[in-house]
Amino acid sequence: MINERFLLAKERIEKIKDESVLPKNYQKYFENMAEFLLMACENYLFIMEDGLFKEKIEVLQERNYKLYEDILPENYENSYANPEKSVSLFGEEYGKILSFLYAELRSIIPFVYEKKLEEMVIRLELFLEVYGSFCCEQEENKVLPSSGALKEIIYWYVNDYTKDAAEAKLQAMLCPESDFALRIIEGDLSEPRYLYYFGEYVTDNQIETWKHLNSLPEEVLQKMADTYTEGYRIGFEVGNKDISKKKTVNIRYCLGFEPMIKRAVENFRKMGLKPTIYRAASSILQGKGMNRNGYYGGIPNKQYDFDHKDDQALVLDKKLVQVRIEALKESFEKYKEQASVFGGPAVMETFGEKSVALKDKTAALHLSESQQKLAVEYMAASGEIQNRYIKGEERSFTIIAFPVPEIGKDFAKIFDEVIRINTLDYKLYQKMQQIMIDTLDQGRYVLVKGMNGNKTNIKVMLHTLENPETQTNFENCVADVNIPVGEVFTSPVLMGTEGILHVSRVYLNELEYKDIMLTIKDGMVTDYGCSNFDTVEQNRKYIKDNVLYHHNSLPLGEFAIGTNTTAFVAARKYGIEDKLPILIAEKTGPHFAVGDTCYSHAEDVKVYNPDGKEIIARDNEHSVKRLEKDVNAYFNCHTDITIPYDELGEVSVVTADEKVITIIEEGRFVLPGCEALNAPLDE
How far apart are CA 600 and CA 78, in angstroms? Predict the structure, then answer.
C-alpha cells in the first residue's frame, strides 16, 4: 500500500513541470519544489539499489551538495525557504505559508537515507494537497485558495501525524533496536565516504575532523573516549544514583567524531549500557528548533535555522498543544519499561564554527504572545511527563566538547590543548575548590562585581546551614557530568538575591549576545536587554525568545565560580574566547544560570561532596513548589552566562557578622590555598 502511494505521488509530481495552471510566480514555486522532491525520490531509489556503497565518493559528495545547495548562504537570498524572498513574491500571508512549506518538505532528506518510505510519502502528499488546492481554485474560480484553507491543510498534517512522530522520536531515544546511525559507526571508518551514508550535510569540518581523529594514536583516541564515558559513570556515582539499574544511554554528537564514538560505544557496553543514537529534528512534527538535539552533520545555514525556528506559529493553538501532550503520554506509556532503564544522555558538543550575524526578519513566522504561553505550557507538561517515566532522581548525563577545523589554522594545536583541558588533574582542583567551599560556607551572601566596563553588581543569597559540620551549600564539581573541571556551584536563595548581571560579549547555544544585561530582583529576572539589534524591542525579543524561552521571567537557578584558568588562558592564547561552548566557558569565571536549578527533578536525592558533607542547596522557592504538585515549579530550561576573569573585579563572601572574605580580586584568586589557579594566568 505504501509503495503504491509513493509511486502515485511521484508520478503526479513528475507531471507538474508540464503544467501551467497557476500564475507564473506560483507555478515556478511548485515546479521548483517538485524538482527538489523528485531529486529526493531519485536518491531514495539510488540508496535502495546500494548506490551509497557502489559509487565513487565524488558521486556521493555531489549528491549530498545538491540536496542542500538551495539553502546554503550563497544561494539563500533567492531561495523560497528564505521568508523575505517568499513574502516579496507572494505577499505576507501566502509568502509565510509557502516558505514554511518549503522548509518542512526539506525534512524528507533524512527519511530518504533511513529508507522510511511512509515518512517520505506523507510529505509528498502534503505537497500535492497544497498544490491541488491552488489548482482547484484557479481552475474553478480563477482565484487563489484562501490562506485559511492552506493553513488548515498544514494544521491537519501536523495534527494527524503528531502521535506517530512522538512515538518514533521516543522509540529512537529509548530503544537500541533503532540502530541506523550505530550500524554506520560500527562499520568501516577507514575512509570518509561513510559520512555520506547518514544523509546529513557534509562539509570540510566533518571530513577534516575525521582525518584528524584518524591520525591520532590509538591511546589518545581511547583516552578521549574514556574521559567521556567515565564522566557519565562518575555522574551516577557522585549523584548517589545506581547505574546498574540502567540498560541504555543516549549518545549525541556531531559527524566526524565516529572514531572516538565507536570506542565510547564499547566502553558503555562494558558498563552494561546499550547506546541509542537518534538524529536531530528537522521537521515541525519532531519539534525542530535552533538547537540540534541528537546527532547531526554540518549546519548548512544558521540563518535558515533562525528563520524557521518558530514555524509552529503557523498552526499552534490550545487544541494542538493538547494533542501533543496526549501523544507524548501515550508514547511514554507504550515504552514505559524502556524509559525506566534509560540512563540519560551522553553529549559530545563541538565548537569553533564561524560565527554568523543573524537577522531577525519580520517576514519570518513568530509566535504570538498567546502562542508563547502555549509553548511554555507544553514545555512544562512535557517535562513533567518525561520525569514521571524517566525519573530525575535516577538518571544522569555527561557533556564534553571538542573543536572543529573551522576554528582556524591552529586547529590541531587547539584540539590537543582541549584534550589536555578535558583531562586535567581533578584531584588538584578538588582540593583547591574545597578550600573555596569551606570559605563560602561561612557566608550569608556573595557579592560579584565587574570591572573594565563590566557593570555587574549582584548580591547572591545563600541557604542557612543548620549543621555546618555535615552540610554545605556548594557542590565540588570536577570532571563528571560537565567536563572539564572545575567549578563550585549552588542553588541560591531567591529572596534577597538582586542586582545587575552584565557581560560585554557571550555566546549562548551558538547565538551571540552583545552587552547582555539582566536585572535581578528577589532572584527573578525583572528586566533585560542587549545591543545586538537597532531597537530596544528587537533586543528584548531576542533575549525573551532565546534565553528566557518565551517566559516573562526566570529565576536565578545557579550561581557558580569557575576555576579552570587553564581553559581561559588557552582561549586567549588562540583567540577563541568567542568560540568556546558554554560547557567550557562556564568554567572560565563565575557564572549565573537562569531557569531551573542544577538539581531539577532530583532535589530529593541526597548529594555529597568528597569530604562527606551533604549539599543542601538543591531547592529554591520555585522548585520547592513541586511538593504541592504545582506546574510552576519548573521552567524546563537552564542557560549559563559567564563573566570572564578579565571583566571580573571582585567575588567576595559576606558572613553573618558582615565580615568580607575576598575570593577573587581583579581577575585573580586571592584566597589562601587557591593561588595555584593563578599559575596559568601568570604564564
Answer: 45
Tally DSSP H helices, then E strands, for the chain.
Answer: 23, 19
CA distance 92 to 79: 16
pLDDT at 64: 98
Residues 384, 473 within the same domain: no
Say if CB 642 and CB 585 are below 8 A apart. Answer: yes
Give the torsion sign (CA, 567, 572, 575, 576): positive
**In angstroms, what is the C-alpha Rg of the chain?**
26
Long-range contacts of 599-603 (CB under 8 A, 24+ apart): 599/491, 599/623, 600/392, 600/557, 600/634, 600/638, 601/383, 601/387, 601/391, 601/392, 601/393, 601/634, 602/239, 602/392, 602/393
Q: How confident is the model at residue 479 (pLDDT cuts 50, 70, 90)?
A: low
- Burial string for 628-643 (b: 16+ CB within 10 Å, else e) reads eeeeebbbbbbbbbbb
In this prediction, residue 433 has a pLDDT band, given cuts at 50, 70 and 90, of very high
Task: Give the bridge partners for 182, in sequence order.
Answer: none
DSSP structure string for 247-277: -EEEEE-BTT-HHHHHHHHHHHHHTT-EEE-
Identity at 202, one-letter amino acid code = V
How far is Cα 410 from Cα 469, in angstroms, rounded to an integer?
49
Please give the Cα distance from 537 to 60 (Å, whole number).
46
Pick the closest to residue 286 from 318, 250, 328, 254 (CA basis).
Answer: 328
- Rounded Cα–Cα distance for residues 34 and 16 (Å): 7
Residues 202 and 316 occupy one common structural domain: yes
Strands 648-655 and 443-450: antiparallel
Reduce the DSSP state of residue 37 to 3 states and report it: helix
Strand bridging mode 274-276 / 248-252: parallel
Number of domains making up the chain: 3
Q: Residue 566's domain spans which residues?
A: 424-682
CA 502, 505, 531, 641 torsion: positive or negative? negative
In whole angstroms, give the CA distance from residue 64 to residue 51: 13
| Statement to judge: residues 122 and 216 lie in one domain | no
State mean pLDDT over 182-203: 97
What are the grid coordinates assigned to 340, written together?
525506566
In this prediction the pTM is 0.85
Residue 463: count other Cβ atoms within 10 Å of its Cβ: 20
C-alpha to C-alpha distance for 213 and 57, rounded to whole angstroms: 20
- Give the pLDDT confidence score for residue 288 in this predicted structure: 81
The residue out of 389, 409, 443 marking a domain boundary is 389
Cis ω for the linkage preceding 486 (within 30 of 0)? yes
515 and 648 fall within a common domain: yes
For cell 573594565, name the residue: 452
| E runs forming strands in 48-133 | none
DSSP state of 290: S
440/541 same-domain check? yes
* First-last CA distance in the chain: 69
Residues 550 and 667 in one domain: yes
pLDDT tens digits, residue range 93-150?
A: 999 999 999 999 999 999 999 999 999 999 999 999 999 999 998 888 889 999 999 9
Q: Residue 575's pLDDT is what?
A: 87
Position 416 in a domain: no
In a domain, 41, yes or no: yes
Is the pLDDT score of 290 beyond 80?
Answer: no
Is position 161 within any domain?
no
- Supply angle C-alpha 649, 655, 661, rounded to 5: 40
Shared domain check, 226 and 94: no
Q: Which residue type, as a one-letter code, is found at position 545? A: D
Give CA–CA dist 400/485, Å, rounded: 11
Mean pLDDT (the chain) is 93
For residues 249 and 1, the model is more confident at 249
One domain for residues 123 and 249: no
